[in-house]
């Protein structure tokens, strides 16, 4: 079961929130460039859907504070996050031309 801390909701989080499997942790529909709020997770399923022209990346922060691209999507797709490390995580839509890019991370 994933452990999640949503920094956007409470940066002074004092204990782990353990959502049931399938709980939505991050999600956003991009219609322009932008970045989602940050959540701290270790495991989950990543889904990018929609009909779009653009690029969205699933990113994790390393121990030095740098954002590292785990996977980049230019078309709909799915992936799994399972690295057993509690790290800040986000979606970054760095390029958008048209359409809607739906991004979701589920625990």
How would you characterize this protein structure?
- This protein is mainly beta and 107 residues long.
- The chain has a single domain (5-10, 27-106), classed as Jelly Rolls (Sandwich), CATH 2.60.120.
- 0% of the residues lie in helices and 64% in strands.
- It contains no helices and 8 strands.
- Strands 1, 2, 3, 4, 5, 6, 7 and 8 form an 8-stranded antiparallel β-sheet that branches.
- β5 and β6 (67-73) form a beta hairpin.
- The N and C termini lie close together (7 Å).
Task: Throw out a few tags for this protein.
mainly beta, 107 residues, Jelly Rolls, globular
List the helices and strands and how they pair.
Elements: E1 5-6, E2 24-30, E3 34-35, E4 39-49, E5 52-61, E6 67-73, E7 77-99, E8 101-106
Antiparallel strand pairs: 1-4, 2-8, 3-7, 4-7, 4-8, 5-6, 5-7
Q: Quick recap of the structure?
A:
The protein is mostly beta strands and 107 residues long. The protein has strands at residues 5-6, 24-30, 34-35, 39-49, 52-61, 67-73, 77-99, 101-106.
CATH class: Mainly Beta
Cα-based radius of gyration, to the nearest Å: 13 Å
Helical element count?
0
The level of helicity is under 10%
Total tally of structural domains: 1
> Given the helix and strand composition, which structural class is it?
mainly beta
* Average pLDDT metric: 83
> H/E series, N to C?
EEEEEEEE
What's the count of strands? 8
Low-confidence stretches: 1-18
Report the major sheet: 8 strands, antiparallel
Distance between the termini: 7 Å
Which fold name fills CATH's third level, the topology?
Answer: Jelly Rolls
Q: What fraction strand?
A: over 45%
């Amino acid at each position: 079961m994933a452990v999640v801390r949503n920094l956007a909701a409470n940066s002074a989080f004092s204990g782990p929130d353990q959502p049931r499997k399938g709980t939505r942790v991050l999600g956003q529909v991009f219609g322009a460039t932008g970045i989602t709020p940050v959540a701290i997770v270790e495991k989950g399923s990543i889904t990018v859907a929609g009909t779009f022209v653009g690029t969205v990346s699933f990113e994790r922060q390393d121990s030095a504070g740098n954002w590292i691209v785990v996977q980049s999507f230019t078309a709909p797709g799915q992936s799994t996050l399972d690295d057993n490390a509690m790290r800040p995580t986000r979606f970054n839509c760095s390029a958008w031309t048209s359409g809607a890019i739906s991004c979701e991370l589920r625990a």
